Amino acid sequence: MLDQIFLQLLNGLDKGGAYALIALGLTLVFGTLGVVNFAHGALFMLGAFCAVTLQKLLTLEKITLSATETTPWGTPLEVREPYIHAIFGDFGNVLIDYSVPVAILLAIPVMLIVGVAMERGLIKHFYKRPHAEQILVTFGLAIVLQEVIKAIFGANPLPQPMPDAWRGAADVGAFFGMTPGVVIYPWWRLLYLLFSLGVIGLVFAFLQFTTFGMVVRAGMADRETVGLLGINIGRRFTAMFGLAAVVAGVAGVMYTPLLPPSFNLGMEFLVLSFVVVVVGGMGSLPGAVLAGFLLGILQSFASMNEVKTLLPGIDHIVIYLVAVIVLLVRPRGLLGRRGVMEG
């Protein structure tokens, strides 16, 4: 039983990592700009398709006709070789094998540009508008982005291969002194958990220990006072929107081997991520991270057969049930600031 509990804890942390990364970006946007961004799930989806795009580019093939080999019909045999291999040799094969993590290098500038363009081109016009209007316009933008991806890549999911070195599973239980061969967990899921913790740590370190981050945190608390000091807080908040887009994008990149990207990927995570933000507390970065991992763990334990036998369907509603309870007891969320979600 202890082995099962430990395995479900790992599953929960794995899911929670994805929830926390998306919720972190959502909270950055709400905390700095006061905008409820329903297009944030689409940014997660765009990041995933950065990985798809790079994989397609790296596997483009050069076709030549063999001078010595023929097909059974006597015609010259086609020889297919990826351009990247023809240019870089064996290193080209390494790039193809590691196309998903390498796609982070593509996703960072792409998502930064997309995020800044969204903020400057659309979001800035809705800063002082009601949240209902912000939700409508950003949700509409999410649908547009979704349909664009569908038109370019099609409606079917596109599986992305993980590197050969990260296939298989680790005997996590034996590492912690448990019975060998009982708690086996996929390497890539462990990597994603470590990756999510690393990104979260970098974001908090950036906000906590850099001058830029300190000004942003001050602006989140009192924008007018910071502006009176002669600091262009608007430009810094635009950069934070870009940072939030990058966080969502790289989260989507690394998630592609676990869930094949499709055009509706963002919508699948959107509602869950907003529940995470509300439970953690609107505008609270630690709350978003805490709620992400907490709800991931609760969802994992609710999916156990023993629990589903007692409470059929609980795995589908446990997150929303917890959200209702938290909001009834503490309307501003677990770590939310007073007045943000309270009347």
UniProtKB/TrEMBL annotation:
One of its GO terms (molecular function) is transmembrane transporter activity. It is a multi-pass membrane protein. It is found in: Cell membrane. The keyword Transport applies. Keywords: Amino-acid transport, Cell membrane, Membrane, Transmembrane, Transmembrane helix, Transport. One of its GO terms (cellular component) is plasma membrane. It holds the Pfam family BPD_transp_2. GO terms for biological process: amino acid transport. The chain crosses the membrane at residues 21-54, 98-123, 135-153, 190-216, 237-258, 270-298, 310-329. InterPro entries: ABC_transp_permease (IPR001851), BCAA_transport_permease (IPR052157). PANTHER family: ABC TRANSPORTER ATP-BINDING PROTEIN (PTHR11795:SF442), BRANCHED-CHAIN AMINO ACID TRANSPORT SYSTEM PERMEASE PROTEIN LIVH (PTHR11795). Belongs to the binding-protein-dependent transport system permease family. LivHM subfamily. This is LIV-I protein H. It comes from Hartmannibacter diazotrophicus.
